[in-house]
Amino acid sequence: MPYPLIVDLDGTLIHTDMLHESALRALRDRPLDALRLPFWLAAGKAVLKRRLAAGSAFDATTLPYNLPLIAWLRQQKVSGRTLILCTASDLSIATPIAEHLGLFDEVMASDGAVNLAGRHKHAALLARFGHGGFDYAGNSRADLAVWPGARRAIVVNGTPALAAAAAMHCEVEHVMPAPPRGLRAWTKVLRVHQWMKNLLLFVPLLAGHMLGDLDAWLALLLAFVAFSLCASTVYIANDLLDLESDRQHPRKCKRPFASGVVPVWMGVALAPFLLLASLGLASLVGGPFLACLIVYFVLTCAYSFGLKRLILVDCLTLAVLYTLRIIAGAAAADHLLSFWLLAFSVFLFLSLAFVKRYAELQVQMQTGKTKVHGRGYFTTDAPLVQMLGVTSGYASAVVLALYLNSDVVRQLYVTPEAVWGAVPVMLFWVSWIWMKAHRGEMHDDPLVFAVKDPASLLAGAAFGVALLLGSVALPW
């Protein structure tokens, strides 16, 4: 009769750690539990896991499973092997996972009294099967305490060094290397492509015709790096707190943390480092910019922890966050902002925020869902969101037209009549963005869409030409 195959859960069967995810859910849903964590841990890791598991529900169907391992386990099951899920995670977590997969004959897990990890797992398996009476699949150095009692080892997602160490205790039957992480995964963690949003910091410099101010350019370059690092901190926090919602999204499920390509603990460790670096650079730029950056960080944290779940408030918050970049740019360049620029920015970015939500609603409608997970919107809200967004976009064009009729324009531009060409360009672009969203062709982020969309790039170029023509004397 084939030897039973014992399979670890965290990092082996799934590309994540359920203790880490339970702690993140507790931090998000019950922040006061963070004060209780030291007391639960003092009572033992088994108690900590039981308390965290009891207060945070999860969806076993959306976890990042190790599909190659599962395919191999199904072959072993067909060959007649007994499969047992043996994990240090709490039983209330391991059982739904085993039931979802329908692979395992039995589940052994931590029970609130014994933390089934390391030597405790080794002792439990020896008591049940005897020395050399089972094969064991694991992924970490903690499993080196288990493999000495096993007949054979299956090393999953481990390094070559781990496989060599396992071979010193028992025969290694099978090695499944970890999927490559690489530089691309880290650029996705940092959302480097989203840093282009921080080019908004330079808008006050351009709008104020301060292109020759080298000190302002240097300050803004430092400000750009500081804002980008701060934004990456927030993106990491948002991804960590939004794992369940991302895993239910057809594109966001491929993000590094949601897919398990990058462990969540790495994100928890990286975020504070990025924030400290950001604040250090911001302090070099100056106090007003540092204050803007802190407000941005606090507001984005509030958005991640709760505001994004409030209908309309979420979009208003996104619009304010975009506008804060322009305010921060003015603070870094020591330049006063005009009422017109602020009003134009708020309406335009509110429209883009509604585009983002509308695109998400369309994706959910295509999958047959009636409500967006982690948001306050129903798919039936899509027409109203569309109307609010189009209205906001056209309002930004109206503000631009009123600005072009003000005395400020006559002072800044030699030929202010030429700048009026920016108004139809603006009307076209707002209409184009919403047309693409209506057809379901919009990216999750409209600004990212805009820098890749030929029509949007041409509209931006035409807008710039109108401003340039206004800056020179034309023969009329």
CATH architectural type of the largest domain: 3-Layer(aba) Sandwich
Report how far apart the termini are: 96 Å
Determine the mean pLDDT. Answer: 89
What would CATH call the homologous superfamily of the largest domain?
A: HAD superfamily/HAD-like
Sum up the overall morphology in one term: elongated
Quick one: CATH class of the largest domain? Alpha Beta
The counted number of beta strands is 6
Query: In percent terms, what proportion of residues is strand?
Result: 5-15%
Overall SS class: alpha/beta
**With helices defined by DSSP (H or I, 4 residues minimum), what is the helix count?**
22
CATH fold name of the largest domain:
Rossmann fold
Count of domains: 3
What is the CA-atom radius of gyration, in angstroms? 27 Å
- Write down the secondary-structure element order: EHHHHEHEHEEHEHHHHHHHHHHHHHHH
The main sheet comes to:
6 strands, parallel
How much helicity do the residues have?
Answer: 55-70%
Q: How is the largest sheet built, in terms of strand order?
A: 3-2-1-4-5-6
Stretches where pLDDT falls below 50 for ≥5 residues? none
Short description:
The protein has about 475 residues and is of the alpha/beta class. Helices cover about 60% and strands about 5% of the residues.
